[in-house]
């Protein structure tokens, strides 16, 4: 694969940019805004046994598989990590991620805290962990209802789980409250931009500085 050319930085390793949030706090919304705004960022598409929601497209939002296929992928060690969530299984395929990171490709991961911990254990140097919080629990419920994708029972179970998910806030590098969506997006984007500049990622820095020093 060709080395990615970055307009703002020297040659560097890609960032594994993780966005997590309690369900309904807005990580899908913020992820979509980031992907639309940023050509250097690519979504890591997860594999799931959950059925598609209206409007979700195979290969774009998830790879939708049945239980047997998921079992096969686990056996073949095709996942970076996987976890059960709400009665379904979700996994991050290793695919070409490792090689692409070395070439400077940035990846966005929309995964929960369990997946975040596993990815962080496997690759601390590349991972950046961002947690999005709702401004309040009543607002979280309002957003889940407004999305109109879940039954009352599912919304109740998401609300219950939200409390458990929020308890993992301290396993993240950054915490951003999603009150105004544009403000939240701007903050998350600044985090990504700053992380790209981090000295440890800049594989092109040593030769460049040597040249400057003469
Ligand atoms: N561990 C792990 N979690 C994932 C992965 N993909 C998605 N998830 C999480 O699974 C949960 C349910 O996702 P989804 O069914 O799309 O509903 P959402 O809560 O509305 O985003 C979310 O917390 C996601 O962050 C993955 O590859 N690994
Ligand atoms: N800052 C915000 N203010 C109001 N509504 C929001 C905000 N961010 C997201 N939403 C809405 O809340 C609902 C849940 O957001 P979504 O991005 O699907 O959450 P998640 O992916 O975390 O489950 C969606 O209908 C979305 O349009």
List the helices and strands and how they pair.
Layout: E1 16-20, H1 27-37, E2 41-43, E3 47-48, E4 63-64, H2 67-75, E5 79-85, E6 88-93, H3 97-102, E7 106-110, H4 113-122, E8 127-133, H5 137-147, H6 152-166, E9 174-177, H7 181-196, H8 205-213
Parallel strand pairs: 1-7, 1-8, 2-7, 3-4, 8-9
Antiparallel strand pairs: 3-6, 5-6
Helix pairs in contact: 1-7
Residues 20, 23, 28, 46, 50, 81-83, 85, 90-92, 110-112, 114-115 line the site of guanosine-5'-diphosphate.
Number of strands: 9
Mean pLDDT, all residues: 92
Q: Largest beta sheet: what is the strand line-up?
A: 2-7-1-8-9
The helix content, as a percent range, equals: 40-55%
* Bound ligands, each once: guanosine-5'-diphosphate, adenosine-5'-diphosphate
- Percent range for β-strand residues: 15-25%
> What's the shape?
globular
Please, what is the CATH homologous superfamily of one domain?
P-loop containing nucleotide triphosphate hydrolases
Could you tell me the radius of gyration in angstroms?
A: 18 Å
> In the CATH classification, which architecture of one domain applies?
3-Layer(aba) Sandwich
CATH C-level label of one domain: Alpha Beta
CATH topology of one domain: Rossmann fold
Structural class: alpha/beta
H-E order? EHEEEHEEHEHEHHEHH
EC number: 2.7.4.8
Protein name: Guanylate kinase
GO molecular function: ATP binding; GMP kinase activity
Main location: cytoplasm
